[in-house]
Amino acid sequence: MFSLGSWLPALPGLAWGWALLDAFLQGESPQGWRGGGSGTARGTPVTRCCLFPAGLVGACAVSVLCSLLKVYLYIQCLNNPERQAEKDAIRAQWRVLEPLHVVVLTGVLALVGSRVAALVVLEFSLRAISTVLSLGKGTHSSQLYLLCQYSLGCGVSCGLSFLLEGAPHRTCNLALAAGLAGLLATYTRRLARHVCTLYELHSRERYCGVCILLLAAGHGIPQLLRNALTVTFTVADLAAVALINRDFLSTAEAVRFWTPLTICYTLLVIYMQEEPRQGTGRQPVYQTVLVRMGGLFILLLTVGRWSDVLHVLISLLGELWCLLRAGVMLEACWRQ
């Protein structure tokens, strides 16, 4: 397998450092590291879904989603004279929160275990299908994009880790994916900053290519996000099922896990159908997050491990952090 040590000088005193850095990027235990409750024997890889590189890619994916939605909502508010207050609120968001959001979300995704991340992905996929089927009842799809932030991060991390598991050049692939994701997130943040600062002037004067393109095709951003999220969650769902099933030694164990899980998710989907009737505002959204994570918490107390219970609590913090970060845009979606 490709490793950083193969590119670096063979200095005896630095051998442990190369092995540790390489294991950190790959999500494995270095040689001589004896794992504890989450590890394995000496020299055996410890596979986790969301270590730092995969978590960083997931956080960057969430950043790209938020930046593009910010561009779309800002343009929509700008074109509506009655929504100028919302436009000013979107523009007034602190710039320092954007990189801070990526850093915090990367840490959360790096701490969440593969089983809980996979369960979050599957739960959101069922909820998204239910929401799409009920769009005719008044559910807003733009709001769904903001509500999927944490699930998207888990999905990207799960899919990336699953696809790269056992790959011969995993370290290089993870580093490349993290670098490309960081560049994409940076440029979309710059795009959002440019739009919030100069779009009103440039779209009127017609001398900025980016703003002219957004003026002509900005309404297609939701469709672009819808297609990208469909592909992402399709891959993530397959990866999530595989990550969960590999822990079972027999069919009986799998049935004992999937049966209560199916019942729990069915009840959650039924509850989500009542969410639009609870009115708009932040309280119903936060209440829904607590119900969802509470259901997973109780389920994993019954059929999971103690580490899974801890990861559910960490996931709750991640969900709340994403919602707090997107509070202004959620308000704009509710009033759209």
Give a quick summary of the entry.
Keywords: Membrane, Signal, Transmembrane, Transmembrane helix. The protein has helices at 15-26, 52-78, 84-91, 97-111, 114-133, 141-147, 149-164, 170-205, 209-217, 221-245, 251-273, 282-303, 306-325, 327-334.
Q: Helical proportion?
A: over 70%
Give the terminus-to-terminus CA distance.
52 Å
Supply the number of structural domains. 2
Structural class: mainly alpha
Low-pLDDT segments = 1-8, 26-50
N-to-C series of helices and strands: HHHHHHHHHHHHHH
* β-strand amount: under 5%
Please describe the biggest sheet, giving its number of strands, its sense, and whether it closes into a barrel: none
* Morphology: globular
How many E strands? Answer: 0
Counted by DSSP, the helix tally is 14
Roughly how many Å is the radius of gyration? 21 Å
Overall pLDDT metric: 77
Pfam families: TMEM82
Signal peptide: 1-17
InterPro entries: TMEM82 (IPR031648)
Protein name: TMM82 protein
Question: Can you characterise this structure?
Answer:
The structure is a single chain. This protein has 336 residues and is an all-alpha fold. The chain folds into two domains: 1-46, no CATH class; 49-334, no CATH class. 74% of the residues lie in helices and 0% in strands. The protein has 14 helices and no strands. The protein has helices at 15-26, 52-78, 84-91, 97-111, 114-133, 141-147, 149-164, 170-205, 209-217, 221-245, 251-273, 282-303, 306-325, 327-334. Helix 2 (52-78) packs antiparallel against helix 7 (149-164), helix 4 (97-111) runs antiparallel to helix 13 (306-325) and helix 12 (282-303) runs antiparallel to helix 13 (306-325). The longest helix is centred in the middle third of the chain and has 36 residues, at 170-205. The protein is globular and about 65 Å long. It starts with 14 loop residues before the first helix and ends with a helix.
